[in-house]
Every structure is written in C-alpha cells, then in structure tokens.
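Dear support,

I submitted the protein below through the web form. The confirmation email said the job was done, but the results page showed an empty box. After a refresh the structure appeared. I'm attaching both so you can tell me whether what I see now is the final result or a partial one.
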Amino acid sequence: MIPLGTLSNTRYEVGPMRVDRYNLFPTAKILGENAPGYSSGQALQTMEQLAAKILPPGMTYEWTNMAYQEKKSAGKASITFIAAILVVILILAGLYESWADPISVVLIVPLAVLGAAAGLLIGGMDNNIYTQVGLVLLVGLAAKNAILIVEFAREARAKGQGVLEATIEASRLRFRPILMTSLAFILGVLPLVTASGAGAVSRQSVGMAVFAGMIGVTALGVFFTPALYVLMQGRRKKGRQTSETSSSKS
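What the results page shows now:
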C-alpha cells in the first residue's frame, strides 16, 4: 500500500464546473435574447459587431442552435414564399387550364400577410424563422378560402350565368362554409398563441402569424375574392376581344 500523497499533490483552485468545447476548442457559451422592438437578426448583427471589437486576437465566435439556423437561412425566406405562391399558381393553372383564375386566387395572399403583420405588431413579436414558416403556411390557407369561391363561380358560369351573377351566387353559397372552416382553424391555433413554458416563444410566433393572418384573410377575403375574380375575368375577356380584333385586322 502506497500513500496517495507520494504520487500527487492536492491544492484548492477556483475554476469552472465544466469546460465546454466546440469543434474541439475550449469555448464559453453566451446566451442572449433580443430586446423588445428589435428582431433576432438585429441582435445577431449587434453581437457580431461587439465580438469584432472586444475579442482579443486568436479568439473568434461561432453561432449554434437556432442562431446558426437563422444565419444559414438568411435571405431565403422570400424565395421560399415566392416559390410557394408559384406552386399554387402552377397547380391551379393545370387544374383550371387558365391563368386568370389562379391569379385571382393568389391575389388574396397579401391580405393574409397584412393580417399576420398586424398581429405581430400588436403582440410585440419579431419576424423570426418561426414567423416565416407561418407565412408560408398562410399561402395555402388563404388560397383555400379563395378556391372555394372561384370553383363555384366557374361551375355557375359553365351553366350559362354571367360573371357577376355567378360570382354573387358562389359568394352566397360558400360564405357559411368559409366562415366555419376558418373559425375552426383560428380557434385551433389559439393554444399556440397563448402557449407558455419551455419553447413557448417559437409556438407563439407560429401561432400569432397564422392566427392573425387567418383573421385578416377571412374578414377581408370574402369581400375581395369575388371582386378580384370579376376583375380578372373582365381583363381576360378584354384580352380575348383585343386578340380577336388583331386577328381580324391581319
């Protein structure tokens, strides 16, 4: 038996409980949150500026978790949003064999975005990656409500009704189903808006964007969708007449 003191010396020192490593380098974690009224992108930019001024030579920083994902996907939200709209247009164009009807459907999407922006502003929330996911979701939800009116208007026109009469009839028939389905969805995402606990901010961001966006597109869409459909059909008819006139002249 050999006493431990013959092999080692012990002394008390102040040090961290654990040493974190990132890519095998000793690191220090910094957790932060953007102040009210400022977006997470602005907070990340401020942190980068402070790191460039304060960190000594030989030290650098790396983003992890949600900050890393946000930096990686920066600038891609608008591309994804536009791609979602194009997909809806192309699918409806193939279904209806027309470009006027799909455009009258997707023109309702800005109302959903306006409602979502108003909800985020009232709630004091920023435009983060979860909010952008909710905006992409709103493209399909807003188009769904408009499709209900456009589809019935097309069927009424196929039976010989005029554009205005068919649109009024479709709006009257689909008013109650649109309200019922929209209210069901709005109440369904309400628990996300009032979420609490761990990860509540992400659920609140998605919930508020979809909740307010659906309220906006439901309250305004039932009035604007018929008007947009009549407008697009009028332009379509005018385009056909212009084309026929040019053909007859040639």
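Response: this is the final, complete result; the empty box was a page-load delay. The first helix runs from residue 40 to 54.
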